Amino acid sequence: MLSGRALALATLLLLEGCAATSRLAGSHGRPSSGWLARGERLPDRGRGWQVLRTDAQGGHHWGTPRIVSMVRQVARAVGTTNPAVPLVVGDISDVRGGQIPRHASHRAGRDVDLLFFTRDALTDAPVITPEFVRYDRDGASVRWPVALRFDTARNWSVVESLVRAEAVGITRVFVAAWIRTLLLTHARAQSRPLWIIERAEALLHQPGDSAPHDDHFHVRVVCTPDERGAGCFDGGPAWTWLDKDWEKGESASADDDAVLALLMR
After folding, report:
1. pLDDT given for residue 210 in this prediction
2. What is the pLDDT of residues 139-193, one digit of tens each?
3. Domain range spanning residue 124?
4. Other residues' Cβ atoms within 10 Å of the Cβ of residue 2
5. Starting at the edge strand that comes first in sequence, how are the strands of the sheet with 49-51 ordered?
6. Considering Cα of 101, then 107, then 111, then 112, what sign does the dihedral take?
7. I need a surface site. Which of 54, 118, 206, 236 has the fewest CB within 10 A?
């Protein structure tokens, strides 16, 4: 039979194991070299969205609960204008993160691709985005069999919904510089709130180490304080509006001697 101290130590180890498992949940490492623990899977379709590729077709839709929740939130917001044409979602990450085809990042469950909304160039009717369609500076599709147009109004609604999703902690929305110009010009013409436009200007960014992203939005969220304490690296700007929620961890780890003394009472 275990002595009181041995039993307390065993209990402490069990508690520490549970705490370690809890701390491991979420995003680890960098977006380009990390991994994912106990992620959440985005279903193939839901209210206002559908995935571009199912798992059987080579899609990867595992991420942190925050990024999966963000996709649902944005899809609901933009789906009210035309429920028949859903937001098309590309890859997030694999079930345990790591490298996946077609991506240099998307390894830690904090990145998601949202395909652009599009319209038929001849009829101006909104159509479901068929694939990653590239657009030029005028919003016309590039080398696509059917002439399509960049749906500036609905794509701006995606950006505005991302800006308003403050609790998610979005750090970047990667997109080509000319697409950024189309979106911000539209927002100013529609007299959208100044703070929304200013944050969109900051978040929308053409990457310098990959394709310009003229065929989709690539959205990235920050590490939570707990994820950061377990080795998650943001690798992006620390926006002032994120300081309140994401600056530091929620609590300090418990001292082993203090827990042991508590168990020995």
Report:
1. 77
2. 999 999 999 999 999 999 999 999 999 889 999 999 999 999 999 999 999 999 9
3. 4-263
4. 10
5. 45-46, 49-51, 87-89, 111-115, 216-221, 170-174, 204-205
6. positive
7. 54
